[in-house]
Hints:
The protein is an alpha/beta fold. It is 39% helix and 18% strand.
Amino acid sequence: MSLIHRPRRLRRTESIRAMVRETRLSPDNLVYPLFVCEGEGVRRKIESMPDCFNLSIDELVTEVEAARQDGLRSIILFGLPDEKDGTGSQAYAEDGIVQLAIRAVKRAVKDVTVIADNCLCEYTDHGHCGVLDGDEVLNDPTLDLLARTAVSQAEAGADIIAPSNMMDGFVEAIREALDQSGFEHVPIMSYAVKYASGFYGPFREAAQSAPQFGDRRGYQMDPANAREALKEAALDLEEGADILMVKPALAYLDIIRALHERFDLPIAAYQVSGEYAMIKAASRLGWVDEERVAMETLIAIKRAGADIILSYYARDIARRLA
């Protein structure tokens, strides 16, 4: 009689399944993205991202305090200034919306890691991620502004700087500026592999950052390319990145796995607004179980090799894990 292999033995009960589970999520590995805007008492719904809001600083602090109680330790901030201009000057202003928000959060919530997204698209009146010459986004002049932004964010108390605009040499420029300003201890979480994706649509409503003309394919990556992702990540590592990010996550699980296998740095992945919105929409139509699918997608991202996951579901998942 031949031996029958019976893998189902280890699936019989929840306690057995939990005991042998290979991939585990923890609130410690989740980052909660938040949008901070001007004003007071503002908690404005983002229509394309149900249960997400544009928050004034006072409401932001309340949200971070509640998230911390739910077990989350890390947030990333995106700013919505009232005034925009051609060079995104509010991104690096001492009294910029994100700088003020960082100070407020650090005063009110002591045990939280504040990550500052470093880009210009939310702050420019044209919606592109850098300085323009006609319709062309200029690389090197933009680096100077990103470096100024990073230093101002670090001065405000940001624990990690997360540059996201995909200019060539952006990590090196920011690392040098931070080091020269006495912030050599501040890590850089680079959006090393950021694709020109259709999944960003809801974010552009949330952050009011849609480009006024053209698109970002001239500086964000072509979704068809995988080897290029390894090149981009290697360059950011060489320039001083401490963490490498892949964005979006679900459509690029193969890229997450490739970076995980190639590099020794922590790998982050961003479950972006479109991924979140699709789950929300399908669940509201009764087509999927939202809680189950949200958890399943995050487990898939973790299983692919992500050490850190940025997700709008972070607070909900932290509550569930607790």
